Amino acid sequence: MKLKNSINKVFFLAFFFFNQISNLNADNHVIDIWKKVDNKEKNLTENNSSVTEKSQPTTETSGLFEAALNKQGEQNIINSNLITDNEKKEVYGLYDPETNNFTLQMWSNTDGNSIKEMFKKINQKDLSDFSEKIFLETILTHSYLPYDSMTEEEFLNLKLGWLINHNKIEILEQFLNQNKEFPGKEKVIRYLVDESLSEANLKRSCEKVAFLSNSVKDFYLDKFRVFCLISENKLSEAQVTFDLLNEQYAKADKNFNEKISFALGLTETKNDKIYDDNMLNFFISSKISEKFNYKPTNKTDPYIWKYMNNAGLIQVDNIEDLTEIEKIEIAAAEEKISDDKVFEIYKKINFNFNEILNADILHQNLEPIKSRALIFQKYLLSETTNSKLQYLFLLREKFRRADLSNVYNEFLSQELEDLKATSEIPSEYSQLVELNIIKDEDVIEKKIKFNDKNYYSSKLLEYFDQNNQDTKKFQKLLNTTVKKISKNKKYQLSTKDIILLESFKSEGFLIPKEINYTDQLSQFKFEDEMIKLSKSTHTGLLALKLVDLFSQDNVKEIDDQNLLYITVLLNNAGLKNIRNQILMSTLPERI
To answer: Number of structural domains, the chain?
Structure first.
């Protein structure tokens, strides 16, 4: 009994001292975020240890950030097994983590629900070119899964779903070729094949499918390959592939088999029935059936609408049948067919000379479709700039009332562009014209103009535009530039100067004592949940929140204060490459 009590005491004392030492280490441990970034090549166990020991902010936070940090606290309990489990799983993507200073663990400490919520927000927005670039580089970086509330399939569905919904065909093709097997692969293949077929260019479609590696196997894709071989008159190869297809897949496609058997000469009976159960069967039906006659409905697959539009198969037999015309308008509004089809039909609606002449009055009493068609024809026959503008904007109002603005906006923009190029716009219309011209984001083509009048326009910028920076060279250049500009006693640091200097400081450069911008910087009071997030390990979530925050902004039009805010966030997180892209897009003067 005494021996047993002695053993218990030993275990108790050992447990007590172990806890005291652990608590002491946890309280005194300080994370150097820059050291963590610089040493990201260390083994995953060391990275895992630094994440586990990182203390939590004491200030209360809200929203997604609070959820992420609360979950991180829970995750510390199981973190010792997390990386090991992740290592056993395949990682999918296009970019190496180092490309943008991410790591394989960029999501590992983040709750999956926070990521789902950010995708939900971003999905509701039209991203600027720059925001989209950052978004794609973030979501397509090779990485491990979030630690909770998200499966591998869900994570990939979020990424691939966005690419599919935004028609990123080339990126999806790259993803398919670089990632052999992944959850949702069939959905990607089906999308690429249907997009290809909907172009109504068989030769090009077959070339695009051939681009996909032969190692990419799928029933739907293989069926299309058989049809491509037939179209190229490689009948022997097509028949062998067709036979293997039926042997390999237990559930053969009866409709497909009937059409292909006839095309290969295996049967003499032609089946002229049009199958619209999928895009491939519909495509084959349109090519093989002699009497092709098909009227799409609102329930018809969007790819079939698109294919019929591109193949010139959409016809309105009775131009007086407004119901048929309405279907075309709705299909155009839903982007199933091109807007041009609507205006082609408007041209065909018959109006006599008097109706055209008195369109200004008659349009008010006509049915909406005929009213739009009448004003459209009146516009086409107008000769003066004033009258053209009058009818263009009247037509805009009619499309708006019918909830068809997206059918008309691009047409309006192009017509206004043409008018600007060929005529002088009356002053009363000038502002309205500018507001209705769709402007693409400017592309930086001009060369950088360096000068030493400001820090942000000096040759110091070259540091952020090089892959292998010579730190000694740029420290010397920084010192020289400071001395040169400091001679101007009236010089005041601008926000852009502070952005540049803060970025140099984050790189480890010594800022000469002649410059003191601490007081200026403190006036901005950047203390919010985003700043706290940037100092955590949730780098992937931070990038998504930045995309959401500045989603529709052209990066060159972001005001200086917000630009400083973004720079501070990226400096804190160590996302240098993204920061450098922003700096080189916004700071330099160009000629």
So the answer is: 3
